[in-house]
Amino acid sequence: MPAVLRHLVAVVVAGWLLAGCTSSVVIDPAPTAARTPLPGADSVRLTLIASDRRVVARGELATVDNYQGMPMLRIAAANDIVYLVRSTLEREFKALGFGIGSGGPTVDIFLEEFYNRFEQGALFSARANVRFRLKVTSATGTLLYEQSYSGIGTVDAAVFATGSVAKAALEKAFAKAVEQVAEDGELRRALLGAAAGPSGQRP
Fold first, then answer.
1. Which residues partner with 56 through β-bridges?
2. Among the ranges 25-34, 68-77, 138-147, which has the highest mean pLDDT value?
3. Which pTM does this prediction carry?
4. Looking at residues 95-103, what average pLDDT do you find?
5. What radius of gyration, in Å, describes the C-alpha atoms of the chain?
6. DSSP line for 179-193
7. Number of domains in the chain
8. 78, 79, 81, 123: which has the highest count of C-beta atoms within 10 A?
9. What is the CATH number of the domain that holds 187?
10. Domain range holding 126?
11. Quick one: DSSP state of residue 42?
12. Cα angle vertex 108, ends 57, 192, to 5°?
């Protein structure tokens, strides 16, 4: 039997077996690279607040459709994705030397997308998109900085569209978005500037 035909048969059989099923996976935090603490960051305490602003598929990470476009498998997260994003960014800010607590600027984290899409040909490919926005305000409510961060992760030539494939693509995308935050010089300056007095000097 030709390879393509074997694949089509496998997809049809999988559709029969998995129709209406849900698979869940744990999305792991993006790895934290070695960071050098920023001078003066230890005098800034951040309050991090995360909220879910996803419009599509808030409860899902991916779906696997058959050739008729009907979902045969839904992939959900076994852990809290909003908490995952917040805790990962908290770890990044700590690695840069910032403290976590009240009294300083607030960093609002708006999660806007965390989803993987499968493309089906002779084999499956996965393309994941992760996007969130940070809004930094001072202790008095003044807007200091606002920026969006996004990452794309792919997995090619997968024999089956599974939760583990979606997980791998999403974790790649998430790591790229987090790295953008860590490398954002304007964000660093906005946070460090929150500790400066009216004259620009640190108290």
1. none
2. 138-147
3. 0.84
4. 95
5. 21
6. HHHHT-HHHHHHHHH
7. 1
8. 81
9. 3.30.160.150
10. 35-58+79-193
11. G
12. 145
